Amino acid sequence: MIRPAAPQQSAALEGLIQALSRTVPLEAGRSSPMKKIRLPALVRAYGALKAGLALIGLCAICGAALIAWSYDFNALRQAAGEMFFPPSVEVTGPILGSEAETPLEREQRLVTEYIAKRYRVADSAVSGFVSAAYRAGGQYNVDPMLVLAVMAVESRYNPVAESGVGARGLMQVMPKFHLDKLAAHGGEPALLEPEVNILVGTRILREYQRRLGDTEAALQMYAGALDEPTAQYAAKVFAEKARLDALRKLARKPQSA
Questions:
Q1: Which of 1, 21, 86, 145 has CA atoms 20 to 30 A from the CA of 227?
Q2: How far is CA 94 from CA 90, 91, 97, in A?
Q3: 109 and 101 in contact (C-beta within 8 Å)?
Q4: Which of 100, 137, 131 is nearest to 115 (CA)?
Q5: Which regions in the chain score pLDDT beneath 70?
């Protein structure tokens, strides 16, 4: 017996069921009474067809939505890229410093850029170290390139460096041997202040130069290796100083208009 269609079935399905439920005559020559066509198979076929068409429609809608979303996403990504990473601007010719830059300022700028790049230290920090080295060198008559080279070998421009034997700061000053020089700056803690550390370290280096009369020997004494026959420490400092001297020579070349 065919069950009545559920309320949620469409009107088209109900009409089809009613049409198929009508009796039809048998072929001529047959005497058997009229009978109804069996509907379950047809109903299932119709339901499958309807479901298939619905699935195709759903896929088409999803595909269209995906295409639209992809377009919008690409546009959004491009807009975000332009917001956070502005398009590069082409610049013709080299980037130069300020037109009002003095030879000394140019020299210090080139040295700062070199140190910051080589030792991966912030430009702003290195700029302060370089300026302090020039001031200390001028005060104690020591080449600022030598002061900077000592910093490179001793601490790699780390203002809070501290060795296992107690040497501290940029120039790795040993406080227990130089308390007299630190007294005017507030004592041992002041060695972590770059300006004080550079000033005291340069003063010590100058004293050793005067005492020994030779920069190589002064450097070896500064490192506590005066008796080391190969003078490896001094060789490292001189190698770094040579690189800085090359920058200074370049900075002092007359600038073409």
A1: 145
A2: 11, 8, 10
A3: yes
A4: 131
A5: 1-46, 64-99, 256-257
Tokens for 98? 């300020």
In 64-102, which positions are buried (b, 16+ CB within 10 angstroms) versus exposed (e)? eeeeeeeeeeeeeeeeeeeeeeeeeeeeeeeeeeeeeee
Quote the CA–CA distance of 184 and 109 in Å, as a whole number: 31
**What's the whole-model pTM score?**
0.61
Whole-angstrom CA distances from 1 to 17, 35, 43 are 13, 12, 14
- Identify the CA nearest to 107 among candidates 133, 77, 71, 139: 133
Predicted confidence (pLDDT) per residue in 23-79, tens digit:
445 444 444 444 444 556 666 666 777 777 777 877 777 776 666 555 454 444 444
Q: Return d(Cα 226, Cα 219) in angstroms, integer.
A: 8
The SS3 of residue 181 is helix
DSSP assignment of 205-256: HHHHHHHHS-HHHHHHHHTT-TT-TT-HHHHHHHHHHHHHHHHHHHHTSPPP
Ordered DSSP codes for 18-66: HHHHS-BPPPTT--SPPBPPP-HHHHHHHHHHHHHHHHHHHHHHHHHHH
Query: What CA–CA distance (Å, rounded) separates 212 from 189?
Result: 29
CA atoms within 13 A on the CB side of 154: 30
Cβ–Cβ contacts within 10 Å for residue 199, how many?
Answer: 23
* Arithmetic mean of pLDDT over the chain: 78
List, in sequence order, every residue forming a beta bridge with 158; answer none if it has no partner: none
Instruction: Report the distance separating Cα 201 and Cα 171, nearest Å.
Output: 6
